[in-house]
Amino acid sequence: MPDFQYFDGVPPVFADDSLDHFAVLKRLGETTLIRVQGKDSSRAVFVSTLQHGNEDSGWRVLRDFLKRPPKDYPWDLYFMIGNVPAALWGNRYERRVVPPEGEDMNRCWDVAETTPLKKTAGAILRFLKTKNLIASLDIHNTTGVNPPFVVVTEEDPDRIQIASHLSGVGIFSPLTGCLTTAMGKFCLAFTMECGQRMLESSKKAAEQALQTFLKIFAKGPRPAVEKKPVKIYKDLIRVLIPKGFPIGVEGAKENETPGPRDFLIPKGLDLYNFRKLPAGTVVGRLRSPEVSFPFLMKEDGSEKDVASDYFYQEGVTIKSKVPFTPVMMSLSERAIHIDCFFYLGEDSKTVS
Fold first, then answer.
1. Do residues 213 and 135 lie in contact, with contact meaning Cβ atoms separated by under 8 Å?
2. Does residue 100 come out as left (phi exceeding 0), alpha (psi in the -120 to 50 range) or beta?
3. Which of 33, 38, 158, 260 could bond to 73 as cystine, CB 3.0-4.6 Å?
């Protein structure tokens, strides 16, 4: 049996002011789907959050929103609270996935259901496909320092124009296994990345995104919206570092795992996310010249490693060969090994 629970109506625990957001999460205990009935149940809008257990902003906003859910929204609303077990592991919102090497929930959608989490995702997706969804919003935090930005997985004009109201910066990233990629096949789907976890500014970004999204789609399935410019980065390439390759940050007092570091990232390098960096930028240093070149990069649809087209080794230093824009760069060893070091963007297109 897929491991999630369904509530037709908001559970009373959400309105209990004696419980903070984490205490409510403990009461839920597992992946949760909640329906809030609207005026017309022939269509629905979907919002999800906490696919990664350490990304708290969307969940905090959603808990507050569901304390007093709307009674007159035009359509039914469905809300998913994703990887609750990961969020509850250890200290508050400490783990992205369930340790030691649990799955990334946001790689489990519309793929072969070979694991319990993939089966859960598959069951939820099949359920949502029966609800005549018009739109989906998946709320996240980023591990590194990033401005709030929107993610789209389809390039049609309607989608891009609506995305511009969520953020003036976005990326086109149709990653296999991601919820927004799966949802985008049958409704208008967006991911909102709201900045780093546990920050009030990130919570405010999530709150603004939720309010904007619900306001737009209250107008109908293909709402007309004012044109706004949005800078979209596309043709992104993931810069991977193999699992087991010890990573640290220069000047850090301690690392996420014990032992010597084979690769050190310059402190503060993630401050340059979404900024174009020149050729010759230092992106890391190896423990010794004998340590193997750490990057692996494959363009979509190709098995060829293209890392040497973009980066090179000079002694112990790894530098960029060409100008590039880092997107979603992380300095966290765990996050890098679960996902990637960063996405490389070569250029962007401003749509207005």
1. yes
2. alpha
3. 38
Sequence-distant (≥ 6) Cβ neighbours of residue 104 within 8 angstroms: 52, 96, 97, 338, 339
Distance of CA 189 to the CA centre of its chain: 13
Q: Strand 230-233 vs strand 247-249: parallel, antiparallel, or unpaired?
A: unpaired
Q: What is the pLDDT along the chain (352 residues), one digit of tens a residue?
A: 457 999 999 999 999 999 999 999 999 999 999 999 999 999 999 999 999 999 999 999 999 999 999 999 999 999 999 999 999 998 889 899 998 878 999 999 999 999 999 999 999 999 999 999 999 999 999 999 999 999 999 988 889 999 999 999 999 988 899 999 999 999 999 999 999 999 999 999 999 999 999 999 999 888 989 989 999 998 889 999 998 899 999 988 888 888 889 999 999 999 999 999 999 999 999 999 999 999 999 876 678 899 999 999 999 999 999 999 999 999 999 889 888 999 998 656 566 5
pTM to 2 decimal places: 0.91
Dig out the tokens for 168 from the structure.
């003036």
Place of tokens 């694991």: 115
- To the nearest 5 percent, what fractions of the chain are helix, strand and coil? 25, 30, 45
Element (H, E) at 240: none
> 326 with 272: CB under 8 angstroms?
yes
Contact 44, 129 (CB under 8 A): no
CA distances from 46 to 36, 138, 188 (A): 10, 8, 10
Q: How far apart are CA 338 and CA 173, in angstroms?
A: 17
Residue 142 and residue 195 in contact, taking contact as beta carbons nearer than 8 Å: yes
351 to 80, 159, 160, 266: CA distances (angstroms): 31, 12, 8, 33
Q: Are 251 and 257 in contact (CB under 8 A)?
A: no
